[in-house]
Design the sequence.
């Protein structure tokens, strides 16, 4: 079984993997958009890339939220482990057998000397945790799990002066655990049974009814924090990406957004006409998110793009490029090409305008030198 820190680390790694997959797929689509000959197709693909980048940003938030959850679960669980360790230490060191002691105030057996020595033991109270908490360092020390401040729990003083684990009914109320019906530690794992103090195991059966005890509260706290961590579900990244594409393709907002962008770049037609056009392109590229999406999606991300590493413009399937650096280079390649095309078109337009401005003016009729011209144009 994985420890809480290991579970937390696994969750974080999976979530980080999902974020990376979102980012890389967005880069692949940005490059694929650069290869598209049709403006509508290019805008649909670029819009998908933008949405995946937003999804990656959302996953980044999930990663950040995992950190405090993992710390809380780890610290709470470690406090339980530490409490159990301390209690077992008390059992092994306090019961000498010379006085028939069962950690009772009625026998002068060797018991823990003072509750003050347990003042930092997390079995006494629920823990508080902040980002600067030293709970983890203190509990998981170089010598192992320990929270006891004293190395030796034995004491040879009189029983009534000691901090006892079990006290007889009607005894001093300042003792740790008093009457025999009360669950003593860990919400019922150990309890007093019978009129004479004796140890019995109960295997957490009374944790709900004994939830008011310090041990039970601590275990419930640890269990709740751990369950919150385990509830963070992270699926297969590739499947998650495909599901996201399916969700986006089925949303009418995608077609509306593409239509607006087409309008902005000067595409002719009304908003309704452009939306219809966008829907057809989405259907062609992604099958409207229907059952045929898998094959359409695979074909889309298998589009050949510049591989981002060759001096020459060599291409390979976008899906086969797995290094972020190469994907970024590929996107830059198409952005630079687009910029070159724009500058070239801009230059051609400027030449045309300059040529038009340099044409000789048409002479006006009225002067003697223009007599023949006026006759021919009359």
Sequence:
């Amino acid at each position: 079984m994985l420890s809480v820190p290991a579970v937390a680390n696994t969750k974080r790694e999976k979530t980080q993997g999902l974020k990376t997959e979102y980012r890389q797929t967005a880069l692949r689509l940005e490059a694929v958009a650069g290869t598209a000959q049709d403006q509508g197709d290019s805008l649909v693909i670029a819009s998908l890339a933008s949405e995946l980048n937003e999804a990656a940003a959302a996953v980044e938030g999930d990663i950040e939220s995992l950190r405090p959850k993992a710390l809380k679960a780890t610290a709470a669980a470690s406090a339980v482990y530490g409490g159990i360790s301390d209690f077992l230490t008390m059992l092994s060191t306090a019961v000498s057998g010379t006085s028939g002691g069962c950690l009772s105030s009625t026998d002068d057996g060797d018991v823990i000397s003072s509750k003050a020595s347990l003042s930092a033991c997390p079995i006494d109270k629920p823990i508080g945790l902040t980002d600067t908490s030293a709970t983890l360092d203190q509990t998981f020390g170089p010598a192992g799990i320990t929270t006891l401040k004293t190395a030796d729990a034995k004491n040879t003083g009189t029983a009534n002066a000691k901090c006892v684990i079990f006290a007889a009914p009607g005894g001093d109320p300042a003792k740790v655990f008093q009457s025999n019906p009360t669950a003593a530690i860990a919400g019922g794992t150990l309890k007093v049974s019978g009129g004479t103090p004796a140890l019995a195991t109960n295997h957490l059966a009374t944790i709900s009814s004994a939830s008011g005890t310090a041990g039970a509260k601590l275990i419930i706290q640890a269990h709740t924090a751990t369950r919150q961590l385990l509830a963070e579900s992270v699926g297969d990244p590739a499947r998650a990406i495909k599901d996201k594409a399916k969700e986006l393709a089925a949303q009418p907002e995608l077609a509306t957004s593409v239509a607006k962008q087409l309008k902005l770049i000067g595409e002719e037609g009304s908003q309704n006409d452009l939306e219809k056009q966008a829907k057809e392109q989405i259907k062609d590229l992604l099958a409207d998110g229907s059952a045929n999406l898998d094959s359409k999606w695979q074909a889309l991300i298998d589009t050949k793009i510049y591989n981002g590493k060759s001096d020459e413009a060599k291409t390979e399937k976008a899906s086969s490029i797995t290094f972020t650096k190469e994907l970024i280079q590929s996107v830059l390649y198409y952005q630079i090409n687009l910029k070159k095309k724009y500058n070239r078109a801009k230059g051609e337009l400027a030449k045309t305008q300059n040529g038009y401005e340099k044409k000789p003016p048409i002479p006006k009729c009225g002067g003697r030198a223009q007599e023949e011209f006026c006759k021919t144009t009359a």
Notes: The beta strands are 140-141, 144-145, 183-185, 190-192, 199-201, 304-306, 315-317. Residues 93-124, 143-157, 159-164, 173-208 have pLDDT under 50 and may be disordered. DSSP finds ten helices and seven strands in the chain. The first strand starts at residue 140 and ends at 141.
